[in-house]
């Protein structure tokens, strides 16, 4: 039921942006081609056409439309954002040695790690070519900064693994790298391309950032509190020793015995039967689920406050509903 | 002896550009830092400070100086070129599963593939940030195109492996991806940053391209004709089934029996004792060594012709000597 209700805002946005999205999809198909290396479009198509929701390019299109864009630069920008996203997915699957994404085998499994690394590099270069075509150095600056934050966040996640003493500050930095940096770059760049005023560009950036942070916090919560009907595998982060918010909150409130448990299971990765259930029980006992949900809700409130600073436009209530949808998955 | 003579042009250039190079090294050290993810500068320093020759950034500096650059944008550009080079080395070592580079263990061996992929991504993003600071969209265009050509060439090399029927056209495309694309982008961007005229920018681009193609052809030749005193491991390309120029020439002139040998050894990778020596003997028999050397020399001649189109400057004879040095390794 909640899922049914929840998918609506995303679909409404896609419907409103249908022409723009069609143009972006055409551009993506054109630019992922490589006349000389057919492996490139093969690998890319596997991922790009696997039915991703195009959430990030939609954020760019929505921001640009709200700010009254003319011309077609927002299509290039949206395609560029999707290429950066796809490149990071390809590299992430190598890094995590993933075998499934969006219900299908990953590219590194179907081809090899090598293809995933190189095709990711190709898409990254292609994304910068598209940005250059928009003629905006500021857009390039925004997305180059986002790319650096993404890579930095991934490295940080790598070095924070199995460290239950990770601070909330570091966690937030990882969350920005994984999700919020590209969300905020997508909305900010859309506004810049449309020539929006500084205060509006900042509001768009803040919306994307808050939406992205909430999105990732919810994702991290569902890794413990999710159900199969939502399509989430529960326990991946626990097994991989990723110090996410529900863990950090439970660890902060742990007594000595509980702390020893977290150190053994997540810190050393010495898992025993029933550990995941015990971890979930400790989270429930210390209110870590509720506190994590509250944190996500607070970010959603911030996202919607940022929208308040933007002019009235048919897209605006859709972006507000999209924000609500992010936490609606938790009910 | 030949080595002694050969290192001179490179050192002369480094001496002439000493102040610029010092500024570039400072910039590299500053920008490879990551306050939050210390793994990044660790991995980068391992490679950047391992005594690479800084050939590519020197090409940018030399081109910019020849064209009378003022200000400091050429330092940012040279650092950017070195970051792209370092990023591709990190990713190449993952792709090739290399264990040694520049006589030291590779980053993927010391840390892991994951760190190499992500730190490469970080440096790539950093390089675009530096380019944005130069304020030149054209420079960004040149280097984004180079980055796409590099990735495309690597994918092409991957799919051409073990195909002894690879065409010379595909080989040249691989060579441009591996080496010439960044060489030519380095010289072209240096000229653009200095505000050189179109004809001069084109001459600089052509010099870098021809130098890079010759450089890679010689490298591929040394993989069969090199000696240990030159520091080359002979036979890597043969074992990995990479269809390089000496192979393609020997295959083109092969009789049926020889073709069957190439197909077994390089096409199927079913190596037997003495195969490398037999391959070298076939190359000698068919004049493949000489023809490859002649091809490299022709590219060097083109590089020097391109220099002729540029104004007189103290750096110009050094760039000509650098071109001669590339083939001098073969004597």
TrEMBL record, chains A, B:
The chemistry this enzyme catalyses reads:
5 isopentenyl diphosphate + (2E,6E)-farnesyl diphosphate = all-trans-octaprenyl diphosphate + 5 diphosphate
What keywords does the record list, in alphabetical order? Magnesium, Metal-binding, Transferase
Cofactor(s), names only, from the UniProt record: Mg(2+)
Gene Ontology biological-process entries: isoprenoid biosynthetic process
| E.C. numbers | 2.5.1.90
The record's section on InterPro entries has: Isoprenoid_synthase_dom_sf, Polyprenyl_synt, Polyprenyl_synt_CS
Tree of life domain: Bacteria
Q: Which Pfam families match?
A: polyprenyl_synt
> Does the keyword Thylakoid belong to this entry?
no
Q: Per UniProt, what is one GO molecular function of this protein?
A: metal ion binding
Record function comment: Supplies octaprenyl diphosphate, the precursor for the side chain of the isoprenoid quinones ubiquinone and menaquinone.
Q: Which family does it belong to?
A: Belongs to the FPP/GGPP synthase family.
Q: What is this protein called?
A: Octaprenyl diphosphate synthase
Q: Which organism is it from?
A: Pseudoroseicyclus aestuarii
Lineage of the species this protein comes from = Bacteria, Pseudomonadati, Pseudomonadota, Alphaproteobacteria, Rhodobacterales
